[in-house]
Amino acid sequence: MPSIHDYFVPWLHGQKMYISNHLELAWKDQSLHRMMSNENPLPPSQHVIQAIERYGRLAHRYPDRGVEVRTKIARINGLDGPENVLLGNGSSEVFDMVFRSFVKPGDQVLQHTPCFGIYKLRCAALGGELVSVPMIREGDQLLFDADAIIDAINPKTRIVVVANPNNPTGNFMDKADILRIARTGIPFVVDEAYVEFAGLERSYAALTRDFPNVMVTRTLSKAYGLAGLRFGYLLGHRSVIDVIAATLLPWNVGTIPLWAALAALEDTDALEERIRFNNSQVEYIESALAAVPGLVTFHSHANYILFDGGPAGRKGSDMVDFAQSRGLIFRPISPMYGSEGFFRITLGTRDENRMAVAVVKEFFSA
Ligand SMILES: Cc1ncc(COP(=O)(O)O)c(C=O)c1O
If pLDDT is split at 50, 70 and 90, which confidence band does 308 have? Predict the structure, then answer.
């Protein structure tokens, strides 16, 4: 009798379920301070809680296609209407739909590194090959390398994906470079998970009108502070959204997140408060740690900050262990650019940020 394992698609062999160990840890020990997953430290607003309660009472009902919330999203982003918007269970699911729409086994997806890990995972699940173009290190900056991205395009390339601003480096690609990639005609996904922190004027949603190959992903997990709700979306040309929508799992966004998202999108005061708080705290941490000898800070336009303690002869993994011994979860970053010193801190509450500053200073003064 053959084994069931002989029937799996070959590219799944050796692939493992993705487990966020830091999230497992944080939920298991809720006394720990979560400064590792680019969550928002502020809980949902009253308006969102009310929507969750109201629609919680209707959770026995299937959701509809979310035309109302999609219309609202289109309006916020200056697009025509719900036909430009596709909803996902977080933007991670949106990536899955986009990748399934373009990538078959052997095809390539182009990304920058360092960057968010989901692109690689969704590509691997389809038998695609992820090609990584390293960012360029220049002192306290890691810069996008659009020339290298464009040079790497070949007949197997099916998607170019750029996180803008990038995670974990926190910076934007230059507009001229975004346009150069758009003009290649290759499906180009601009991941704008954090763009609200810098302002929607930095968004490329409008580009989708003239460039059907440009698609923009967004999420309510970051500035809106609803990571646990799971709500993300794709903005694109109507003709493109139409095709990708064929991959959409019916009822992928539940009744509760659908209506809670609408409440969040309408609650502009809550969004403003979160953006203001975040940006003031980025400023606080960056300036509080600016004088630490040998600690390089990568200026961030998002809700996390990348550091390199390599010049001080320190390892990022030791920093993360030390912080955890003090009750704070930071994020280790794999060694790169000849340094083992990288780590990332997600902004927390005011108190948590003060604690983080104290812990980093203590570690680097030891
Ligand atoms: C660049 C980037 N894109 C997308 C996401 C995923 O967000 P979502 O919660 O919408 O799946 C993250 C999460 O950390 C991210 O850093």
Answer: very high
Mean pLDDT of 59-85: 98
Please compute the mean of the pLDDT values over residues 325-343 and round it to a whole number.
98
Query: Which atom of ligand 1 is the closest one to the Cα of 232?
Result: 10
Q: Which atom of ligand 1 is nearest to the CA of 231?
A: 10
pLDDT in tens, 18-52: 999 999 999 999 999 999 999 999 999 999 999 99
- Pocket probe for ligand 1: among 113, 219, 305, 331, the residue whose CB has the most ligand atoms within 8 Å is 219
Give the span between the Cα atoms of 65 and 81, in whole angstroms: 13
Torsion sign over Cα 14, 122, 163, 254: negative
Number of domains in the chain: 2
Residues with CB under 6 A from ligand 1: 38, 90-92, 116, 163, 167, 191, 193, 219, 221, 227, 232
Pocket test for ligand 1, best of 37, 91, 226 (most atoms within 8 A of CB): 91
CATH of the domain at 20: 3.90.1150.10
Which residues have CB under 8 Å from 295's CB, separation 6+? 289, 307, 308, 309, 311, 312, 360, 364
**Residue 302 Cα, ligand 1 centroid: separation in angstroms?**
12
Q: Please indicate, yes or no, whether residues 113 and 135 belong to a single structural domain of this protein.
A: yes
Q: Is the predicted pLDDT of residue 125 greater than 90, yes or no?
A: yes
**In this model, does residue 269 exceed pLDDT 90?**
yes
Tell me the residue range of the domain where 352 lies.
4-43+269-365
Find out whether 158 and 128 touch, Cβ atoms under 8 Å.
yes
